[in-house]
């Protein structure tokens, strides 16, 4: 079986050094001061990386290698794995931004997921098949390689075709906020369709928030033919409305050439977005998730923005699925932080 690697992007935005670095580059005259692109929730970590790592070790033991891409930080996932999964032999490697931005160091530091994603394929030793996880994505049931790639090696993508002109109309009708229109996840996909041109100007694949199976050679060939697009997309330190989503570019291109498999979200992918104003809705979604035995993948969008009871309920559910008491771990981590502050 051809190896499958996992790539996870992560940052601890509460780290004082990272905070100071971020503040230094805000308002640098490149149109990057929009509140939403530098909102604290984009960088705040409340333990999601450990949910993600634990879920892979628990439910995808066939994985060849796990890479965590970060900015001069280390979540010490190897220690976590040794404590809770001593039988696992999956290597975990921390990859610094400087490694994937080699020869482009002038573009660093960056605080922009789209810029970082543009460079992920440059991880040294990365296998041809790799699955991309944001740190807010985790597995909630056993998976096999066939959940990500079919027998022919084609990626299996959760998503659907979206009409390009409809997306353009929605973007045009969107009311300005703070003097400009918000740049959304879908907008980055629309930009990818514009880059591809041709049939993509009529339709593109609307990706679901889930793990994304990718192919390293595609990005190597694409950026080899279009080096100017690599630099243009990776140069923004904070999200910019001109950027395209690299994964969307890959998926829409393959779908237009019948080289990937599209599947509906169905019951397989769970999406939770806890917010204080959505107490009832999120509670209902969580109850559905608890009894959903068909689910394999879950995305928890901005857990830090949830009300305390929402966070507790979701973390408890994750702990039950993964067999780890994450609530006790959070309390343990808090006691350690308080002791360090008193010292």
Which keywords apply here?
343 residues; alpha/beta; Spore Coat Polysaccharide Biosynthesis Protein SpsA, Chain A; 5-stranded mixed beta sheet; 3-stranded mixed beta sheet; 40% helix; RPS_phosphotransferase_WefF; Stealth_CR2
Please characterize this protein's 3D structure.
40% of the residues lie in helices and 16% in strands. It contains 13 helices and 11 strands. It has one domain (4-342): Spore Coat Polysaccharide Biosynthesis Protein SpsA, Chain A, CATH 3.90.550. Mean pLDDT is 92; it is low at 29-34. The radius of gyration is 20 Å and the shape is globular. The chain has 343 residues and is α/β, with parallel strands linked by helices. The longest helix has 17 residues, at 326-342. The strands form 3 sheets. Strands 3-2-1-4-8 form a 5-stranded mixed sheet, with helices on both faces. Strands 5-11-10 form a 3-stranded mixed sheet. Strands 7-6-9 form a 3-stranded mixed sheet. Helix 2 packs across helix 3, helix 8 (216-225) crosses helix 9 (227-234) and helix 11 packs parallel to helix 12. Strand 2 (65-70), helix 3 and strand 3 (92-96) form a beta-alpha-beta unit.
């Amino acid at each position: 079986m051809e190896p499958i690697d996992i790539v996870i992007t992560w940052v601890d935005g509460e780290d004082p050094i990272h905070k100071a670095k971020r503040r230094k580059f805000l308002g640098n005259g490149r149109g990057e001061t929009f509140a939403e692109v530098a909102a604290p929730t984009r960088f705040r970590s409340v333990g999601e990386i450990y949910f993600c790592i634990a879920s892979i070790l628990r439910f995808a033991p066939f994985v060849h290698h796990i890479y965590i891409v970060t900015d001069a930080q280390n979540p010490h996932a190897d220690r976590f794995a040794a404590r809770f999964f001593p039988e696992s032999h999956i290597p975990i490697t921390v990859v610094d931004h400087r490694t994937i931005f080699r020869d482009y160091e002038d573009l660093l530091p960056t605080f922009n997921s789209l810029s970082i994603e543009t460079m992920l394929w440059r991880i040294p030793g990365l296998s041809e098949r790799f699955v991309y996880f944001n740190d807010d994505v985790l597995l909630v049931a056993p998976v096999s390689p066939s959940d990500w790639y079919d027998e022919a090696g084609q990626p299996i993508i959760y998503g659907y075709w979206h009409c390009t002109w409809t997306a353009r109309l929605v973007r045009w009708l969107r009311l300005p906020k703070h003097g400009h229109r918000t740049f959304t996840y879908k907008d980055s996909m629309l930009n990818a369709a514009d880059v591809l041109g041709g049939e993509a100007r009529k339709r593109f694949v609307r990706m679901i928030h889930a793990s994304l199976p990718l192919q390293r050679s595609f990005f190597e060939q694409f950026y080899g033919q279009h080096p100017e697009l690599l630099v243009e997309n990776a140069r923004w330190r904070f999200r910019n409305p001109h950027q395209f989503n690299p994964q969307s570019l890959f998926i829409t291109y393959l779908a237009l050439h019948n080289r990937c498999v599209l599947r509906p979200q169905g019951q397989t992918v769970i999406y939770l977005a806890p917010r204080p104003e959505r107490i009832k809705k999120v509670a209902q979604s969580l109850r559905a998730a608890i009894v959903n035995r068909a689910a394999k993948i879950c995305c928890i969008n901005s857990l830090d923005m949830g009300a305390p009871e929402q966070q507790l309920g979701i973390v408890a559910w994750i702990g039950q699925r993964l067999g780890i008491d994450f609530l006790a771990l959070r309390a343990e981590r808090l006691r350690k932080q308080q002791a360090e502050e008193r010292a």
